[in-house]
Design a protein that fits this description.
This protein is an alpha+beta fold. The chain is built from 23 helices and ten strands. Among the domains are: 251-436, no CATH class; 440-503. It starts with a helix and ends with a helix.
């Protein structure tokens, strides 16, 4: 039934996209079959409005804003899919404005008192009923607790859960329809992308999850110099409300204000680049919504990120792949880039490494050949995703958020210092980190961890094995026991041999 309701909304969605001229832009995308491109061009000819010939990313932003808050969030998520939308449209979506009219102060107060079980004046000495920010999912108010601490109070929009659920059903239905009508699109993993968006949205719609994310980031960066994460008042935080430290400072893109306040722009750029690198590679847990409005510089020069509704995570093997990829791209070693994709299981056995490397050189070299301050590594990765369609490389969903974050990080760095390149700043860190991952001590630690895990589950394996022997051969218990002991010996010998090979 939910799919049926979702499909009934498709004509209206198509009309809005068509009037904005989005379908005309989509008709030029390579992954679509020719009949779909023809159909989209025909609809574009019939209904596109007079302003539809603007920049592709701009027209899509206008359409998504008209369709509502969930479509805005989905558009921001789509900014990671340059393989699907093309680099220009994807980059245009990164800065999609997430701003909506505020909901009433009456609903704000009702929510706070309902969630906390206390009257507003029992919690706050001062509460500003006019929000300082109102976005698609929540709005933020400045307040002062009765103990005198200044706080930011973030409150979810009323009925946002219901609206999010309904719109995600539309996205899921459309993704399944597209994959059914055009099987070639399966390599883009559209359904998985929608599921990933759903999971992230569910986290973003629970303020307790955001509080936990902020707490984890705060712990990870506790010993880092020049950066800190705001504290959270857990006693007042619930599913619909988040109360955290109010940060007084300048936005990171307010260059004139930062210079006037005596801050050194080069130091801030270096600190931001190092912080981004540490989050992605060292910790594998990073802030995935780092637009300038979410990063402040305090009076003492400390960098303070806020808003932890969208976080990304990477497994060690993904970080190792990305670290090597970053170094290879900066060194313009496209044969190494091709080999990395093959070793990671992304490049099919039948694909030509040399041809893949040649494609990389043709499309990525012009980006890397620019002056140092103009190199955009996120754009280079977008081109790699575009090339992947030619070689049937399956999109890796775990990298989607990272690509979007890289675009934002580059934008922030460039707004601070047009001549800076955060990737060149991060290259020595990447090289040291990759070498550390291949060191003897780390290998030994990984081996010991694996052995510990094996011996934790060994009793159950042996119990199950002995039980299966007893069931199969009840009258030959001695034979079963001898076989059991023999196999156990081979099992332990196998572990020993594996350890020896990995160490030496």
């Amino acid at each position: 039934m939910s799919y049926l309701i979702a499909i009934l909304r498709v004509p209206y969605i198509g009309f809005v996209l068509g009037r904005a001229g989005v379908l005309g832009h989509i008709s030029r995308l390579a992954p679509l079959p020719s009949w779909q491109k023809t159909f989209f061009r025909f609809i574009d000819f019939l209904i596109a409005g007079r302003n539809s010939r603007k920049n592709a990313g701009e027209t899509l932003c206008i359409a998504l804003q008209k369709l509502g808050p969930v479509f805005i969030k989905f558009g921001q998520a789509l900014s990671t899919r340059s393989d699907l939308l093309g680099p220009d449209i994807a980059r245009g979506l990164v800065l999609l404005q997430d701003s909506l009219p505020a909901f009433s102060s009456r609903l704000v107060i009702e929510t706070i008192e309902s969630e906390t079980g206390k009257k507003l004046d029992e919690i706050f000495a001062v509460f500003n009923e006019k929000p300082v920010a109102a976005a698609s999912v929540a709005q933020v108010h400045k307040a002062q607790l009765v103990d005198g601490r200044d706080v930011a109070v973030k409150i979810l929009r009323p009925n946002i859960h219901k609206r999010m659920s309904a719109d995600i059903a539309v996205f899921t239905a459309l993704a399944r329809i597209m994959e059914f009508l055009a099987p070639r699109l399966k390599r883009l993993r559209l359904v998985i992308a929608v599921e990933q968006f759903k999971q992230l949205s569910e986290l973003e719609l629970d303020m307790r999850m955001e509080a936990a994310a902020g707490g984890k980031l705060r712990d990870n960066m506790a010993s880092d110099n020049g950066i800190r994460v705001p504290w959270i008042e857990h006693s007042l935080t619930s599913e619909n409300i988040l109360v955290s430290e109010w940060i007084s400072g300048l936005r990171i893109d307010d260059v004139e204000g930062l210079i006037a306040a005596g801050h050194k722009i080069e130091e801030i750029t270096d600190r931001a680049a190092t912080s981004f690198f540490n989050q992605v590679f060292r910790d594998g847990y990073f802030h995935a919504d780092m637009h300038p409005g979410n990063i402040f510089i305090t009076s003492d020069g400390t960098l303070v990120p806020i808003d932890f509704g969208i976080m990304g995570s990477l497994q060690p093997e993904d970080r190792f792949f990305l670290g090597n990829l970053l170094i290879a791209l900066l060194e313009r070693d496209y044969d190494k880039v091709a080999q990395l994709h093959y070793d990671a299981g992304m490049l099919p056995e039948t694909a030509s490494h040399a041809l893949f490397a040649q494609n990389l050189r043709a499309f990525v070299d012009p980006i890397m050949d620019k002056p140092i301050g103009e190199i955009e590594l996120s754009k280079a990765l977008g081109q790699i995703l575009q090339i992947s369609a030619r070689f049937d490389i399956f999109v890796q969903p775990q990298f989607n958020l990272l690509q979007k974050t890289m675009v934002m990080a580059e934008g922030v760095a460039r707004s601070l210092n047009p001549n800076a390149n955060i990737w060149q700043l991060a290259k020595p860190l990447a090289s040291d980190w990759v070498q550390a991952q291949t060191g003897f001590t780390l290998k030994l630690q990984q081996i010991l961890t694996d052995i510990d895990r094996i011996f934790r589950i060994l009793p159950k394996i042996l119990d199950d094995y002995e039980h299966s022997l007893t069931e199969k051969k009840p009258d030959k218990s001695n034979f079963g026991k001898s076989m059991f002991i023999s196999n156990l010996g081979w099992f332990i010998a196998g572990i020993s041999i594996s350890v020896a090979i990995m160490l030496f």
